[in-house]
Specification:
By secondary structure, this protein is α+β, with helices and mostly antiparallel strands. It contains 13 helices and 39 strands. A 10-stranded mixed beta sheet has the order 13-10-12-11-15-14-7-4-17-18. A hairpin with a 5-residue loop joins strand 14 and strand 15. It starts with a helix and ends in a 56-residue tail after the last strand. The C terminus is likely disordered.
Length: about 675
């Protein structure tokens, strides 16, 4: 056989082998695909594009990680837009320093934490449980923390296995220990760094537990060490029996708790607190020297459904509820990285951010209002607006820069001719106090005390904004020092005991209707009218201790204002900071026919409604549906605004800033990211 013939035969054999290998590989691939479709057809159906934190992630980029616990965990992994709400925290109203928390759920609770391989399942309980710290904490005179046994604590000593136990054999090992120990001996899991150890016994002190470690080693065949209480450890205890379910050291992890669903259950399951509130989502607990921290993690619209009925009344007009849901959604998203940037949550549960007390007050109507505006926000120049809101404006809102410091083009003064503030709670208010009482109050204010050296002899508003809000406050002391304070909300805070808003005057007050231009009056001492004829409040008290007699031209002729010398009247209109939406005005607008799209945009000039997926394109309202405009379509005519003098129903309101009728007299609240207020209700 020639050399060429041999080479040809070799090539033919190689080609045949290559073809056979390709056919074999194809058969294997087809078999694998067919098997996958046969055993897991549902998997290919549920992997879709998802939106995480506002960013769409393609299903092609998502690699499912099988876990026996995933179906139980409505946690941040499955929230489209997760919101972290601080419930217990160092500066909160609830005392996290010495706090235990009683919770339960209708079908039980699941407890888990992070491990090296993702979530680690711990336990479930169908009974009420108490989450309790080993130690409470307190502050000493130097404002430093120290441990204490006062308050709600769970201080026990026990023997702990030195080496962790494999999770798969944890229950079996615990039962084995119990069979070798006297009946009733406490044996329970103790988790450290995501690894389970086993704790045995309860002892009165460290020495007693240490002394028993050798005996337990001989009896149970494992090394034990004495475990003492510390400031990062949490006990999970059956509330009624006092039985310890397990303990966890949260120094490098968190304890997650979520409600279980019954088989076939469709409706939501909630975590319930011992005081009756119910919560969506997941609870995260962590203990530090600063206290027991609790963060509630839930989806954005579930958060809005909890906030809405605590900020306004659920009985208000549906159009107001819809508009307000957009305002709450926009405020939340625009402040996620601002209000608590140095803390482990996005929003607190107080009116410093927004009042959050769970779902107890939610109704089918408030939930529907949120659902009907899903993904809709107020935007300006392709960014979500900071939609501040307050209770009642008193006829006119104020610009952000005059109230605080930041400036936004879409937060400017807006006249509210339809706001029936005279009929609303604290729409008009007045407080008359003696000079000595007012001066004593101001001298005790640390902000004022830093700027004066003697006793106060006079107080006056020295400058107003064009919208009629007090902008500069002058306080003169007996040494001739004049302390000046500016910004509307700073003045409102300094005088908070006697005022509800910065739309106020100080002195002997008389309402007058001016026939001539206000510019002819002393620009320092008059309270301007708004463009719609709301009465001017004229301040007849000028500098010094003696009254100044002012003559004002009124509709009835000249009137001399004669102030008293012993008392001072602080009076005004409105309740709150005056920035953005007036909640009462939003209700009044709905009562005279405004729809929610007009209400949401009215208070923020130049802002527009947009979908979260496209903040640059304004949505339009066509035939009752909010939608994106078609390309090259003519913009619709602006909807006709109701007449200025339309008379809405004279319905008595009951809300300050962001609270409902039940809490109106309990506290004053404002929604702003720059101030803090008392909490509305107990968690």
């Amino acid at each position: 056989m020639s050399k060429k013939t041999q080479q040809l035969i070799t090539r033919i054999i190689a080609w045949v082998l290559a073809v056979l290998m390709i056919i074999s590989a194809a058969a294997i691939i087809i078999s694998v695909v067919a098997s996958a479709e046969e055993v897991a057809p549902e998997l290919t159906e549920v992997i879709e594009d998802v939106n995480i934190g506002g960013e769409t992630v393609s299903a092609d980029d998502v690699t499912p990680t099988p876990s026996p616990f995933n179906e139980f965990l409505p946690h941040i992994d499955v929230c489209q837009t997760p919101i972290r709400v601080g419930v217990f925290y160092i500066y909160g109203t609830n005392n996290c320093l010495a706090f235990s928390h009683n919770i339960f759920s209708e079908n039980g609770l699941m407890f888990y934490s992070e491990g090296d391989d993702g979530y680690s399942f711990f336990h479930s309980s169908d009974k009420p449980v108490t989450i309790m710290r080993d130690f409470s904490a307190a502050k000493n005179s130097s404002n430093n923390y120290y441990f204490t046994t006062d308050g709600n604590t769970h201080i026990i000593y026990h023997a702990l296995t030195v080496e962790p136990v494999e999770l798969e054999v944890l229950d079996e090992t615990i039962e084995g220990f119990k069979s070798l120990l006297p009946e009733g001996t406490a044996v329970f899991p103790f988790y450290m760094s995501g690894k389970p150890h086993i704790a045995v016994g309860t002892y009165t002190d460290k020495d007693a537990s240490a002394a028993d470690c050798e005996r337990l080693k001989g009896l149970l065949g494992q090394e034990f060490m004495a475990r003492v209480p510390n400031n990062t450890c949490i006990s999970i205890i059956e509330t009624e029996s006092g039985k310890i379910l397990f303990k966890i050291d949260t120094v490098d992890c968190r304890l997650f708790v979520r409600p279980l669903h019954a088989e076939g259950q469709v409706e939501d399951a909630y975590i319930k607190s011992s005081v009756g509130n119910i919560f969506d989502g997941t609870f995260e607990y962590k203990a530090t020297i600063d206290g027991l921290y609790l963060v509630n993690v839930l989806d954005l619209d579930d958060y809005i459904k909890s906030v809405l009925p605590y900020e306004i009344s659920a009985s208000w007009p549906v159009e107001t509820l819809k508009a307000f849901s957009v305002i709450v959604r926009s405020y939340t998203l625009s402040n996620l990285s601002n209000n608590h940037r140095n803390e482990d949550f996005d929003m607190c549960d107080e009116t410093h951010c927004q009042a959050y007390r769970g779902r107890l007050r939610s109704t089918a109507t408030t939930d529907a209002a949120v659902d009907s505006t899903a993904s809709t926000v107020l935007a300006y120049d392709s960014e979500i607006c900071k939609t501040f809101y307050h209770a009642v404006s008193g006829g006119m809102t104020e610009s952000c820069e005059n109230v605080w410091f930041a400036s936004y083009d879409y937060i400017q003064p807006v006249a509210l001719p339809f706001e029936q503030y005279q009929t609303h709670t604290y729409g008009e208010w007045s407080n008359t106090v003696t000079k000595s009482e007012l001066y004593s109050y101001l001298e005790s204010n640390s902000t004022v005390a830093k700027k004066i050296t003697g006793s106060i002899v006079s107080v006056r508003i020295s400058e107003y904004t064009p919208s009629g809000y007090a902008y500069k406050l002058e306080i003169t002391d007996s040494n001739g020092n004049v302390a000046t304070f500016d910004k509307c909300d700073n003045i409102r805070t300094i005088l908070s005991k006697y005022c509800k808003s910065a739309r106020m005057s100080i002195g002997k007050v008389m309402e007058v209707a001016i026939n001539e231009s206000p510019a002819q009056l002393d620009a320092i001492s008059f309270f301007q009218t708004d463009p719609y004829g709301n009465p001017i409040r004229f301040n007849a008290m000028a500098n010094g201790t003696e009254p100044t007699y002012k003559t004002v031209l009124t509709g009835s002729g000249e009137v001399q204002l004669v102030p008293t010398t012993e008392t001072i009247t602080i009076s005004g209109t409105g309740w709150g900071h005056g920035v953005g939406m007036s909640q009462y005005a939003a209700r009044d607008m709905a009562n005279i026919g405004y729809i929610w799209t007009d209400i949401a945009t009215y208070f923020f000039p130049g802002a527009y409604l947009a979908n979260l997926s496209d903040l640059s394109t304004p949505l339009i309202y066509i035939d009752g549906v909010l939608q994106q405009p078609e390309e090259n379509a003519e913009p619709p005519n602006e909807e006709e605004i109701p007449e200025e003098n339309a008379e809405p129903p004279n319905e008595e309101a009951s809300l300050e800033n962001e609270e409902s009728e039940e809490t109106i007299e309990a506290t004053e609240t404002d929604d702003t990211s720059v101030e803090s207020h008392e909490t509305l209700t107990e968690q």
